[in-house]
Amino acid sequence: MTHTPFWADGHLDLAYLAVNGRDMRAAVPDDAPHALTLASMRQGRVRVALGTIFTELGGDPAKDRAAYRDSLDQEGAHRAGLLQLEWYEAMERAGEIAIVRTRGDLARAAAGEGAPGIVILMECADPIRSPDEVAWWHARGLRVVGMSWGHGSRYAGGNARAGGLTDVGRRFVEALDACGVLHDASHLSRAAFDDLLAATDARVIASHSNAQALLPESERHITDAQIAAIRDRDGWIGLNLYGRFLAADRRATIHDCVAHTMHVARIVGTDRVGLGSDLDGGFGRESLPLEVQSTGDYAKLLEALEAAGFAALGGTREGFAHANLMRVLEAVLPA
């Protein structure tokens, strides 16, 4: 029987789902429209995940507890982000998760000792009211930051809003680097991506991004040049399972997952790719690939990659499933 390794998932919107009403402790029935809870993570052997603090610029706070008015609404963004941080802390106190703050925490989670390990990733940095506040968030457990969501932020343009780093965004990069926070480029605009690389020599990942060469109509995906730049920073790129980011004008399949992974791996290397599923993050199972409808289906990705020649490129099952992301996290987490 082929060995199935445990998983390190590079992007899960756990707190966002929780504060908007999902029971994250419940099991997921086979006929449920959604796929992700803490229980389903354990069932699918997801021992480590980058769990987001996701806030939505321009949303309606009355309908969405992750939303805030605009980039000038610093207090609204801060409240929305803090609510999600406090959910992670409450789940840790309840023994449902273990927040990964150090390499030791990561090692314990990887060994399956206790609850799944959550590395906190902020997706859009507007909840951090100024660069001076980065150290406070880091002390509370923040370890990865993507400065912008699609609609941009005070700090950077996003894939749906043009613009590079702002002046305060450049100071923000310095503050992140001073605390050793890992940069996530997944939602940055092209200009902001270039500005980030000019502003820092630090490692960069794309936690949940697919290949623009296969879906050229959207700036949400990363170009071959960006993939190569992440390679040159010894970073990592996670495959996004959202169907619209895998295929156009039809239902995505596991073959699309393989195509994006193989394309990225041929540039960045098989030791710098993995899964950043974005599973169920604001969409349901109907938007996932036909064959990958739950964490329990992740192993099918390994089988499909092997059939496509991933091993011939030097890739391993363990690497894609967890080891590649773990290597990056071990390098950036404090001792």
Proportion in helices: 25-40%
Q: At the fourth CATH level, what is the homologous superfamily?
A: Metal-dependent hydrolases
At CATH level 2, the architecture is Alpha-Beta Barrel
Q: pLDDT below 50 for ≥5 consecutive residues: which ranges? A: none
Number of strands: 13
* Envelope shape: globular
Instruction: State the end-to-end CA separation.
Output: 37 Å
The overall number of domains is 1
The profile of the biggest β sheet is:
9 strands, parallel
Question: What key phrases describe this protein's structure?
Answer:
TIM Barrel, alpha/beta, 16% strand, two-stranded parallel ribbon, 335 residues, globular
Question: What features would you describe in this structure?
Answer:
By secondary structure, this protein is an alpha/beta fold. The chain has one domain (7-332): Metal-dependent hydrolases (TIM Barrel), CATH 3.20.20. It has 11 helices and 13 strands. Strands 1, 2, 5, 6, 7, 10, 11, 12 and 13 form a 9-stranded parallel beta sheet that branches. The termini are far apart. The relative contact order is 0.15.
List the helices and strands and how they pair.
Elements: E1 7-12, H1 14-19, H2 38-43, E2 46-54, E3 56-57, E4 67-68, H3 74-93, E5 98-99, H4 103-110, E6 117-123, H5 134-139, E7 142-146, E8 156-158, E9 161-165, H6 167-179, E10 182-184, H7 190-199, E11 204-206, H8 224-232, E12 236-239, H9 254-268, E13 273-275, H10 298-307, H11 317-332
Parallel strand pairs: 1-2, 2-6, 3-4, 5-6, 6-7, 7-10, 10-11, 11-12, 12-13
Antiparallel strand pairs: 8-9
Concise description?
With 335 residues, this protein is of the alpha/beta class.
